[in-house]
Amino acid sequence: MRGVRMSRSDVLSLYRRVLRIARSWTAQSALPHDTDTERKYIAQEARTLFRQNQQITDPESIKRCTEECEARIEIGLHYRNPYPRPTYLPPMGLATQKGRKLRAQQRLRKQAKPVYLHSHDET
């Protein structure tokens, strides 16, 4: 990528890359039904997230979104699984300093969220 600033054409190129991956995707099980379901999921997820973020104009926010997209592409291709990998953190499982409880836990959970899950709601 070219520094922090991403042009519209860079973002559209990334979107087209995701759609090409969706068209050529083969499920790990190699069953036609699974392949079709996963292809539809990839395309629908891309459409939803790109449309949801199309009004973003801040270069840093655009960079964060594109980094998330690229991370999800790489993880999906590596593990042959298009779905986001879950994170498992027990409700009060992060260490805090004395006296800080729920708010500190919520902040730490938000900071511990991987880049490829930023577009998903907190669980």
From TrEMBL:
CDD domains: Complex1_LYR_LYRM1. This is LYR motif containing 1. Residues 103-112 have a biased composition (Basic residues). Belongs to the complex I LYR family. InterPro entries: Complex1_LYR_dom, Complex1_LYR_LYRM1, LYRM1. Pfam families: Complex1_LYR. It comes from Cyprinus carpio carpio. One of its GO terms (cellular component) is mitochondrion.
